[in-house]
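Page 42, continued from yesterday. The earlier attempt failed because a stray header line got pasted into the input along with the sequence. Redoing it now with the clean sequence only.
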Amino acid sequence: MKLRRLGQTDITISSIIMGTWQAGKDMWTGIDDNQTIDALRAAFDQGITTFDTAEAYGKGHSERIIARALSSVRGQVVYATKVFANHLKHDQVIEACERSLKNLQTDVIDLYQIHWPAGSFGSAKVPIEETMGALSALKEQGKIRAIGVSNFSGTQMAEAGQHGQIASLQPPYSLFWRQVETEAMAHCIDNGISILAYSSMAQGLLTGKFGPGHAFEPGDHRARNRLFQPEHFHRVQQALDRLRPIARRHNCTMGQLALAWVIAQPNTFAIAGARNAQQVVENAAAADIVLSEEDLKEMDEIGRSVTDHLDDNPMMWKF
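This time it went through. C-alpha coordinates are written below.
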Protein backbone atom coordinates (compact mmCIF):
# COMPACT_ATOMS: atom_id res chain seq x y z
CA MET A 1 0.00 0.00 0.00
CA LYS A 2 1.41 3.36 -1.03
CA LEU A 3 1.47 6.07 1.64
CA ARG A 4 1.49 9.76 0.72
CA ARG A 5 1.41 13.10 2.46
CA LEU A 6 -1.95 14.73 3.21
CA GLY A 7 -1.88 18.24 1.79
CA GLN A 8 0.87 20.28 3.39
CA THR A 9 0.55 18.55 6.75
CA ASP A 10 2.86 16.04 8.43
CA ILE A 11 0.10 13.40 8.22
CA THR A 12 0.68 10.40 5.96
CA ILE A 13 -2.34 8.59 4.52
CA SER A 14 -2.87 5.49 2.36
CA SER A 15 -3.61 5.89 -1.33
CA ILE A 16 -6.71 3.73 -0.84
CA ILE A 17 -8.89 5.02 2.00
CA MET A 18 -11.60 2.93 3.63
CA GLY A 19 -14.95 4.70 3.31
CA THR A 20 -17.62 3.96 5.89
CA TRP A 21 -20.86 5.61 4.77
CA GLN A 22 -22.38 2.14 4.50
CA ALA A 23 -21.28 1.35 8.08
CA GLY A 24 -23.84 3.88 9.32
CA LYS A 25 -26.62 1.75 7.75
CA ASP A 26 -28.95 4.70 7.02
CA MET A 27 -29.74 4.85 3.29
CA TRP A 28 -28.20 1.40 2.75
CA THR A 29 -29.62 -2.11 2.92
CA GLY A 30 -28.19 -5.43 4.05
CA ILE A 31 -25.41 -3.98 6.24
CA ASP A 32 -24.25 -6.16 9.14
CA ASP A 33 -22.17 -4.60 11.93
CA ASN A 34 -20.06 -7.70 12.45
CA GLN A 35 -19.20 -7.89 8.75
CA THR A 36 -18.33 -4.19 8.79
CA ILE A 37 -15.99 -4.68 11.75
CA ASP A 38 -14.33 -7.60 9.96
CA ALA A 39 -13.95 -5.40 6.86
CA LEU A 40 -12.35 -2.57 8.84
CA ARG A 41 -9.85 -4.93 10.45
CA ALA A 42 -9.11 -6.52 7.08
CA ALA A 43 -8.43 -3.04 5.68
CA PHE A 44 -5.83 -2.44 8.37
CA ASP A 45 -4.27 -5.85 7.71
CA GLN A 46 -4.01 -4.95 4.01
CA GLY A 47 -2.10 -1.74 4.77
CA ILE A 48 -4.98 0.70 4.56
CA THR A 49 -4.19 3.19 7.31
CA THR A 50 -6.88 5.80 6.69
CA PHE A 51 -10.57 5.57 7.55
CA ASP A 52 -13.16 8.14 6.49
CA THR A 53 -16.47 8.63 8.26
CA ALA A 54 -18.91 11.39 9.31
CA GLU A 55 -21.26 12.31 12.11
CA ALA A 56 -24.12 12.05 9.58
CA TYR A 57 -23.46 8.38 8.77
CA GLY A 58 -26.12 6.76 10.89
CA LYS A 59 -26.06 9.61 13.42
CA GLY A 60 -22.63 8.56 14.64
CA HIS A 61 -23.10 4.81 14.22
CA SER A 62 -20.34 4.59 11.62
CA GLU A 63 -17.93 6.40 13.96
CA ARG A 64 -18.80 4.04 16.80
CA ILE A 65 -18.25 0.98 14.62
CA ILE A 66 -14.81 2.29 13.65
CA ALA A 67 -13.96 2.64 17.33
CA ARG A 68 -15.05 -0.93 18.02
CA ALA A 69 -12.93 -2.23 15.18
CA LEU A 70 -9.79 -0.14 15.41
CA SER A 71 -9.28 1.24 18.93
CA SER A 72 -6.61 -1.37 19.61
CA VAL A 73 -4.51 0.00 16.71
CA ARG A 74 -5.49 3.67 17.05
CA GLY A 75 -1.87 4.86 17.05
CA GLN A 76 -1.29 3.28 13.63
CA VAL A 77 -4.32 4.65 11.78
CA VAL A 78 -5.67 7.99 10.58
CA TYR A 79 -9.25 9.00 11.42
CA ALA A 80 -11.06 11.40 9.11
CA THR A 81 -14.57 12.48 9.99
CA LYS A 82 -16.93 15.33 9.09
CA VAL A 83 -19.26 17.90 10.60
CA PHE A 84 -22.56 18.21 8.74
CA ALA A 85 -23.97 21.35 7.10
CA ASN A 86 -26.51 21.89 9.90
CA HIS A 87 -23.78 22.18 12.55
CA LEU A 88 -21.56 24.93 11.13
CA LYS A 89 -22.13 27.71 13.67
CA HIS A 90 -19.17 28.14 16.01
CA ASP A 91 -20.60 26.40 19.06
CA GLN A 92 -22.22 23.69 16.93
CA VAL A 93 -18.86 22.79 15.38
CA ILE A 94 -17.30 22.49 18.83
CA GLU A 95 -20.15 20.32 20.08
CA ALA A 96 -20.12 18.13 16.97
CA CYS A 97 -16.39 17.58 17.32
CA GLU A 98 -16.79 16.53 20.95
CA ARG A 99 -19.48 14.02 19.93
CA SER A 100 -17.25 12.58 17.22
CA LEU A 101 -14.30 12.32 19.62
CA LYS A 102 -16.52 10.39 22.00
CA ASN A 103 -17.93 8.16 19.24
CA LEU A 104 -14.45 7.38 17.93
CA GLN A 105 -13.10 6.87 21.46
CA THR A 106 -10.09 9.06 20.71
CA ASP A 107 -8.63 12.30 21.98
CA VAL A 108 -7.77 13.68 18.54
CA ILE A 109 -9.30 13.59 15.06
CA ASP A 110 -6.61 13.55 12.40
CA LEU A 111 -8.67 15.19 9.65
CA TYR A 112 -11.88 17.08 10.46
CA GLN A 113 -13.89 18.09 7.40
CA ILE A 114 -16.84 20.32 6.58
CA HIS A 115 -19.18 17.77 5.00
CA TRP A 116 -21.20 20.17 2.83
CA PRO A 117 -21.05 23.95 2.43
CA ALA A 118 -23.32 26.00 4.68
CA GLY A 119 -26.77 26.37 3.14
CA SER A 120 -26.83 22.84 1.71
CA PHE A 121 -30.03 20.86 2.23
CA GLY A 122 -31.79 23.92 3.68
CA SER A 123 -29.22 24.45 6.44
CA ALA A 124 -28.37 27.89 7.82
CA LYS A 125 -26.02 30.02 5.71
CA VAL A 126 -23.25 30.42 8.25
CA PRO A 127 -20.29 32.61 7.20
CA ILE A 128 -17.28 30.45 6.41
CA GLU A 129 -15.18 32.69 8.64
CA GLU A 130 -17.24 31.59 11.65
CA THR A 131 -16.92 27.89 10.85
CA MET A 132 -13.23 28.11 10.08
CA GLY A 133 -12.72 30.04 13.32
CA ALA A 134 -14.16 27.14 15.28
CA LEU A 135 -12.08 24.61 13.35
CA SER A 136 -8.92 26.63 13.88
CA ALA A 137 -9.66 26.80 17.61
CA LEU A 138 -10.06 23.01 17.71
CA LYS A 139 -6.75 22.65 15.90
CA GLU A 140 -4.99 24.97 18.35
CA GLN A 141 -6.42 22.94 21.24
CA GLY A 142 -5.02 19.74 19.72
CA LYS A 143 -8.43 18.15 19.21
CA ILE A 144 -7.99 18.01 15.45
CA ARG A 145 -4.77 17.85 13.43
CA ALA A 146 -5.93 19.10 10.03
CA ILE A 147 -8.91 20.81 8.39
CA GLY A 148 -10.59 19.56 5.23
CA VAL A 149 -13.64 20.37 3.16
CA SER A 150 -16.01 18.19 1.19
CA ASN A 151 -18.26 19.03 -1.77
CA PHE A 152 -16.74 22.53 -2.06
CA SER A 153 -16.08 24.37 -5.30
CA GLY A 154 -12.73 25.97 -6.03
CA THR A 155 -14.20 29.37 -5.18
CA GLN A 156 -15.53 28.11 -1.84
CA MET A 157 -12.17 26.54 -1.02
CA ALA A 158 -10.37 29.78 -1.80
CA GLU A 159 -12.66 31.66 0.59
CA ALA A 160 -12.23 29.07 3.34
CA GLY A 161 -8.48 29.13 2.82
CA GLN A 162 -8.39 32.81 3.77
CA HIS A 163 -9.28 31.79 7.33
CA GLY A 164 -7.11 28.70 7.83
CA GLN A 165 -5.08 26.06 6.04
CA ILE A 166 -7.12 23.53 4.05
CA ALA A 167 -5.45 20.13 3.80
CA SER A 168 -7.92 18.34 1.57
CA LEU A 169 -11.00 18.41 -0.62
CA GLN A 170 -13.36 15.43 -0.67
CA PRO A 171 -15.41 15.50 -3.89
CA PRO A 172 -17.30 12.84 -5.82
CA TYR A 173 -14.75 11.74 -8.41
CA SER A 174 -14.56 8.74 -10.68
CA LEU A 175 -14.06 7.92 -14.32
CA PHE A 176 -17.81 8.52 -14.74
CA TRP A 177 -18.10 11.67 -12.56
CA ARG A 178 -15.42 14.28 -13.17
CA GLN A 179 -16.78 17.72 -12.37
CA VAL A 180 -13.94 18.36 -9.91
CA GLU A 181 -11.64 18.64 -12.92
CA THR A 182 -13.37 21.78 -14.24
CA GLU A 183 -12.35 24.14 -11.43
CA ALA A 184 -11.58 22.67 -8.02
CA MET A 185 -8.73 20.39 -9.07
CA ALA A 186 -6.64 23.29 -10.38
CA HIS A 187 -7.10 25.12 -7.08
CA CYS A 188 -6.00 21.98 -5.20
CA ILE A 189 -2.90 21.53 -7.34
CA ASP A 190 -1.92 25.19 -7.04
CA ASN A 191 -2.34 25.19 -3.26
CA GLY A 192 -0.99 21.77 -2.27
CA ILE A 193 -4.44 20.44 -1.31
CA SER A 194 -5.03 16.69 -1.50
CA ILE A 195 -8.10 15.29 -3.24
CA LEU A 196 -9.84 12.46 -1.40
CA ALA A 197 -12.20 11.08 -4.03
CA TYR A 198 -15.46 9.56 -2.83
CA SER A 199 -17.71 7.33 -4.95
CA SER A 200 -14.50 6.46 -6.78
CA MET A 201 -16.17 3.37 -8.26
CA ALA A 202 -19.31 5.40 -9.09
CA GLN A 203 -21.16 3.68 -6.23
CA GLY A 204 -20.45 0.28 -7.71
CA LEU A 205 -21.24 1.07 -11.34
CA LEU A 206 -17.60 0.79 -12.35
CA THR A 207 -17.38 -2.72 -10.89
CA GLY A 208 -19.60 -3.83 -13.77
CA LYS A 209 -21.97 -5.71 -11.46
CA PHE A 210 -25.03 -3.56 -12.19
CA GLY A 211 -26.25 -4.63 -15.59
CA PRO A 212 -29.35 -3.57 -17.54
CA GLY A 213 -32.55 -4.13 -15.61
CA HIS A 214 -30.93 -3.93 -12.17
CA ALA A 215 -33.29 -2.75 -9.43
CA PHE A 216 -32.13 -1.64 -5.98
CA GLU A 217 -33.91 -2.72 -2.82
CA PRO A 218 -36.24 -0.14 -1.26
CA GLY A 219 -34.25 2.28 0.91
CA ASP A 220 -31.02 2.04 -1.09
CA HIS A 221 -30.06 5.62 -1.98
CA ARG A 222 -28.16 4.51 -5.07
CA ALA A 223 -31.46 4.25 -6.91
CA ARG A 224 -31.37 8.07 -6.94
CA ASN A 225 -27.87 8.29 -8.39
CA ARG A 226 -28.13 10.14 -11.69
CA LEU A 227 -25.74 7.73 -13.40
CA PHE A 228 -28.26 4.94 -12.79
CA GLN A 229 -31.06 6.83 -14.52
CA PRO A 230 -32.20 5.62 -17.97
CA GLU A 231 -30.93 8.71 -19.81
CA HIS A 232 -27.35 7.82 -18.81
CA PHE A 233 -27.40 4.12 -17.97
CA HIS A 234 -27.14 2.82 -21.53
CA ARG A 235 -24.01 4.93 -22.16
CA VAL A 236 -22.57 3.64 -18.89
CA GLN A 237 -23.03 0.05 -20.05
CA GLN A 238 -21.35 0.79 -23.40
CA ALA A 239 -18.42 2.40 -21.58
CA LEU A 240 -18.08 -0.60 -19.27
CA ASP A 241 -17.85 -2.91 -22.27
CA ARG A 242 -14.92 -0.82 -23.54
CA LEU A 243 -13.18 -0.90 -20.14
CA ARG A 244 -13.29 -4.69 -19.74
CA PRO A 245 -10.38 -5.40 -22.13
CA ILE A 246 -8.18 -2.95 -20.18
CA ALA A 247 -9.00 -4.76 -16.94
CA ARG A 248 -8.12 -8.07 -18.59
CA ARG A 249 -4.77 -6.65 -19.74
CA HIS A 250 -3.93 -5.84 -16.12
CA ASN A 251 -5.40 -9.07 -14.77
CA CYS A 252 -7.59 -7.07 -12.40
CA THR A 253 -11.25 -6.53 -11.66
CA MET A 254 -13.21 -3.62 -13.07
CA GLY A 255 -13.43 -2.09 -9.61
CA GLN A 256 -9.67 -2.29 -9.15
CA LEU A 257 -9.17 -0.65 -12.54
CA ALA A 258 -11.48 2.21 -11.50
CA LEU A 259 -9.56 2.76 -8.26
CA ALA A 260 -6.21 2.62 -10.06
CA TRP A 261 -7.41 5.35 -12.44
CA VAL A 262 -8.39 7.62 -9.53
CA ILE A 263 -5.09 7.34 -7.67
CA ALA A 264 -3.22 7.99 -10.91
CA GLN A 265 -4.68 11.52 -10.98
CA PRO A 266 -2.71 14.45 -9.49
CA ASN A 267 -2.40 14.20 -5.67
CA THR A 268 -5.58 12.12 -5.54
CA PHE A 269 -6.54 9.35 -3.12
CA ALA A 270 -9.45 6.94 -3.61
CA ILE A 271 -12.07 6.36 -0.93
CA ALA A 272 -13.58 2.91 -1.31
CA GLY A 273 -16.34 1.45 0.81
CA ALA A 274 -16.81 -2.25 1.44
CA ARG A 275 -19.47 -4.47 2.96
CA ASN A 276 -17.14 -7.34 3.83
CA ALA A 277 -13.50 -8.35 4.15
CA GLN A 278 -13.28 -9.87 0.67
CA GLN A 279 -14.23 -6.55 -0.96
CA VAL A 280 -11.60 -4.77 1.14
CA VAL A 281 -8.84 -7.14 0.01
CA GLU A 282 -9.84 -6.53 -3.62
CA ASN A 283 -9.90 -2.75 -3.14
CA ALA A 284 -6.50 -2.67 -1.46
CA ALA A 285 -4.87 -4.55 -4.33
CA ALA A 286 -5.72 -1.67 -6.68
CA ALA A 287 -2.84 0.30 -5.16
CA ASP A 288 -0.38 -2.01 -6.92
CA ILE A 289 -1.78 -1.51 -10.43
CA VAL A 290 0.34 0.76 -12.64
CA LEU A 291 -1.52 2.26 -15.60
CA SER A 292 0.47 3.38 -18.63
CA GLU A 293 0.02 6.69 -20.38
CA GLU A 294 -1.74 4.79 -23.15
CA ASP A 295 -4.10 3.18 -20.62
CA LEU A 296 -4.91 6.55 -19.08
CA LYS A 297 -5.53 8.16 -22.45
CA GLU A 298 -7.85 5.35 -23.51
CA MET A 299 -9.72 5.41 -20.20
CA ASP A 300 -10.05 9.18 -20.37
CA GLU A 301 -11.80 8.90 -23.73
CA ILE A 302 -14.08 6.12 -22.49
CA GLY A 303 -15.00 8.07 -19.36
CA ARG A 304 -15.88 11.15 -21.38
CA SER A 305 -18.36 9.13 -23.42
CA VAL A 306 -20.42 9.21 -20.20
CA THR A 307 -19.45 12.50 -18.57
CA ASP A 308 -19.85 14.64 -21.70
CA HIS A 309 -23.59 13.99 -21.50
CA LEU A 310 -23.98 15.10 -17.87
CA ASP A 311 -25.03 18.64 -16.96
CA ASP A 312 -23.08 20.85 -14.55
CA ASN A 313 -25.19 19.99 -11.49
CA PRO A 314 -22.60 18.93 -8.85
CA MET A 315 -25.13 16.80 -6.96
CA MET A 316 -24.76 13.16 -7.91
CA TRP A 317 -28.14 12.14 -6.54
CA LYS A 318 -31.71 13.24 -7.18
CA PHE A 319 -32.51 13.87 -3.50
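Notes: The chain has ten helices and ten strands.
Reminder to self: strip header lines before submitting.
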